[in-house]
Amino acid sequence: MIVLFLALVLPPRPFLTASVTGSLSHLSHAESHTTFSPSTHSVTITKPTLFLCLSGVRISVWCVCYSVFVTKLNIPKNVLFIMADDLRTSLGCYRDSVVKSPNIDQLASRSQVFLNAFAQQAVCAPSRTSMLTSRRPDTTRLYDFNSYWRVHAGNYTTLPQYFKSNGYFTMSVGKVFHPGIASNHTDDYPYSWSIPAYHPASFRYEKEKVCKGEDGKLHANLLCAVNVTEQPGGTLPDLESTEEAVRLLKSMAYRDDPFFLAVGFHKPHIPFRIPQEYLSLYPIGQMTLAPDPDVPKRLPPVAYNPWTDIRKREDVKKINISFPHGPIPKDFQLRIRQHYYAAVSFVDAQVGRLLSALDELRLADNTVVVFTSDHGWSLGEHGEWAKYSNFDVVTRVPLIFYIPGVTTVRGCLGESTFPFIDVLTQSRYSFKDGEVRRNVVELVDVFPTISYMVGLRTPQPCSDVSFQVELCTEGHSLANTFQHSEIRNEEAVSFSQYPRPADTPQMNSDLPDLNDIKVMGYSLRSWDYRYTLWLGFNPKTFQGGVNVSDVHAGELYILADDPSEDNNVYSDFENSALMKKMSSLPPVSYDYLFK
């Protein structure tokens, strides 16, 4: 019977060459050789691989797997692009011991996880525009929320637009582009999307007085755990977005054209308006303060973020915190951390529902899934809250790629790839089997990487001046990391930046308008160091707005000794061989700043 079964699913020849949905190179215990070519989705399997079907207790499993792959010849891969808002690397798969994130950890276990991925600017609109165009903020000319790159900088092709132009049906749910002026009040429709972008109706109440306080009245609070049934419409934005995304997946399940579905969840962005039951996952008595809650003594004043956005919430105003450093009372700090983690678990549940639907619709075997965030968020580290700086804790983001047939071969014989895990009852999932990469990478790398992995032509690298070039990338494709074992690359670097209106903290230091920017902090992150220069900046100069000779301050953190970036040793090494080494690192687009 075994021989008959093999004849049904495998060609009679001893060698098999087929176009399938990915690579089988990591089938355990197989002494086979495979090569992966995303441009053709081809896999060449040599003779020893066939022995797998004849050995051990996994006979039927592997043979059916082959059947699944071979029957999906030449089917274009779909893309499910999931983005959280303000999510730092507080996930189980990133070794956070506090958080409960079983669904994202399950995704990571079937994926390749980049441990050192960095955003180009730690605030929503600039980061999202940069990632989705694969252009850095100095090229998009967007440092605030008040301009549209196609008008203010150049008519740059976006990631979803590129897929749309290549035959994909592109859809946006929730916060993908930053809404408003930054995306032309249309989420860049119709350039980027086949249909108008969807925004949940309940988002209009996000900053309203909908949080019940201790006095029984409704307030516009930072901490806003709610009874969902008592909220306007009886729902929350991310719940609505999940429902709409699932509906769209169902509508695409049996269509011939491939799809690109981008889903942006609003949490854990403030206010922490989340279902109150998620707080039970994080008893306040078990919460701890940030390990480095004080402002570093050698931190330049220009580098400090005075977290003015959370100061505007009613419950924070009530405790009358001094400007700019505070501090926030310790009991309130613990509650902020509790609510942030609860918001992460709430997002995890939405990701789980979305992936479960993908699975149930039999789309998991031919859909690339990418999970990331626009930037991180400080939870008291360095005496800071929110984002708006160049520290690791706000620039470092999760970046997870699930490539069916490349990062996993699961899903055979009806086995579920992404079964939903109820975080409220089963809060832990042991992260295992996922491929981990420690390479220093950037969000501008996402566009070329996804393009390559589904077989589209990777955009060409941008020239030094590319304002008139519609399609090019200021990032790099990470595709080679899926094919080769990791080799430590000490020369890899990422670049982030943040604007300031002055050399000292101001009420608009977190998000200055373009015309108010006087200083720009350019930050280089290598494997071992973070090196930041705060330079004079002229917002009226479209090109060359930075005065490289006007150094306002500098920061240097040696990460091997100071992983939390608390001890700025810039003044100790200002004219040293170490600084010369940092200045000689390979250029990206800010090479002129570090020479």
UniProtKB/TrEMBL annotation:
Its recorded reaction(s) are:
Hydrolysis of the 2-sulfate groups of the L-iduronate 2-sulfate units of dermatan sulfate, heparan sulfate and heparin
Write down the CDD domains for this protein, in alphabetical order.
iduronate-2-sulfatase
- Enzyme class (EC, first level): hydrolase
List, for all copies, the residue spans of the domain called Sulfatase N-terminal. 77-451
Going by the UniProt record, its keywords in alphabetical order are: Calcium, Disulfide bond, Glycoprotein, Hydrolase, Lysosome, Metal-binding, Signal, Zymogen
Q: Which residue windows are coiled coil?
A: none
Its domain of life? Eukaryota
Signal peptide as annotated in the record: 1-18
For this UniProt entry, the molecular function terms from Gene Ontology, in alphabetical order, are: iduronate-2-sulfatase activity; metal ion binding
Biological process terms from the Gene Ontology for this record are: carbohydrate derivative catabolic process
Keyword Calcium recorded = yes
Q: Which InterPro entries match?
A: Alkaline_phosphatase_core_sf, IDS, Sulfatase_CS, Sulfatase_N
Location within or outside the cell: Lysosome
| Needed cofactors | Ca(2+)
Instruction: List, alphabetically, the GO terms of the cellular component aspect.
Output: lysosomal lumen
Subunit structure, as described in the record: Monomer. The 58-kDa mature form is composed of two chains resulting from proteolitic processing, the 42-kDa chain and the 14-kDa chain that remain stably associated and form the 58-kDa intermediate form which is enzymatically active.
Q: What does this gene product do?
A: Lysosomal enzyme involved in the degradation pathway of dermatan sulfate and heparan sulfate.
Family (UniProt): Belongs to the sulfatase family.
Name this protein carries in UniProt: Iduronate 2-sulfatase
Species per Swiss-Prot/TrEMBL record: Mastacembelus armatus
